[in-house]
Fold this sequence. Notes:
D-Maltodextrin-Binding Protein, domain 2; alpha/beta
Amino acid sequence: xxxxxxxxxxxxxxxxxxxxxxxxxxxxxxxxxxxxxxxxxxxxxxxxxxxxxxxxxxxxxxxxxxxxxxxxxxxxxxxxxxxxxxxxxxxxxxxxxxxxxxxxxxxxxxxxxxxxxxxxxxxxxxxxxxxxxxxxxxxxxxxxxxxxxxxxxxxxxxxxxxxxxxxxxxxxxxxxxxxxxxxxxxxxxxxxxxxxxxxxxxxxxxxxxxxxxxxxxxxxxxxxxxxxxxxxxxxxxxxxxxxxxxxxxxxxxxxxxxxxxxxxxxxxxxxxxxxxxxxxxxxxxxxxxxxxxxxxxxxxxxxxxxxxxxxxxxxxxxxxxxxxxxxxxxxxxxxxxxxxxxxxxxxxxxxxxxxxxxxxxxxxxxxxxxxxxxxxxxxxxxxxxxxxxxxxxxxxxxxxxxxxxxxxxxxxxxxxxxxxxxxxxxxxxxxxxxxxxxxxxxxxxxxxx
Length: 449
């Protein structure tokens, strides 16, 4: 934090009020975003909308954006290190599922504990739905302000479907077998292609768990935990999910096995879809918002003509979680305060300012998305409007549990062991079970077999 040495040198016990300051305050904000690169829209919004407007309203505060271009896991590791040593940005983008583990590790504090009671007086809380507030909440306390949520679906290349004699305009599978049949038809028509992408492996991190494993597991009627919150370590659903991976990547080579094992595998999966090598890709609406727009690295030429979407079916009709025919899962991101910031009042002023309607609408003008605020609409995006209205009623969420992040890493290892051919589904599940027991304790696990 750039203000730390200044504060020590002046012997300040805490931050001054926003008005009447004797010196300028420097704030740093970090996100996994790079103008012209990953999450470019977020970087453009902060750099070109938030910072100029905030500095104009607060002339004694200077704000700098740290554009982090690495992977999500790398930013998480950096923040964990920074927060553990009292360093790091004053405000940072943060994935809500990480909050429990950071809190239990002493790396995050509730907003009101960092910035004071004025946090609870912010008018914006009333505009956040209960579900969206929960994205940045843990044990009844708020650790950040959510920016938005998302949904997951199947993206398809309608032009590739047509080449294989399939009706891409009206394709809506009702079972896993129908997805596989489409992939087989495409593989027959284009032998060098890898028709389907279901994220797997360690390198993709949480993208494997959320955009891969969960989307299949929910289709078996199961979740990662049971109704009592115990982690399921052996079940038919896990085996069915792992066998689906085996079918795609090992038995029938319908997917790009190597991409699941490479450090840049997720980017390779995006390139495969862009180039028509892959025609069926399971991803979040992030893929539409941030990956494929015109001008992006993985932009799909004539996107609105050649790209379509479908709901993710359960293994069979009615076999999904809660007896559903179709499934999806939602996560959520937002921004949190560094618990060791030297300028908590100013940091909170920036965080809350970012989430006021004027700034949120400025973001929507750059990159329409499903926002956390109920008073902000999705402008000029029929795709996001249609998908959110269709899929949000079907969605579920990850466990709000401090052990989830560690268990998720074991899920990624389990899928990699199967996709690489190293272990059978049964062997990989057994290895996963032992790893989860070591993380949460046997009393917090359950076998359904």
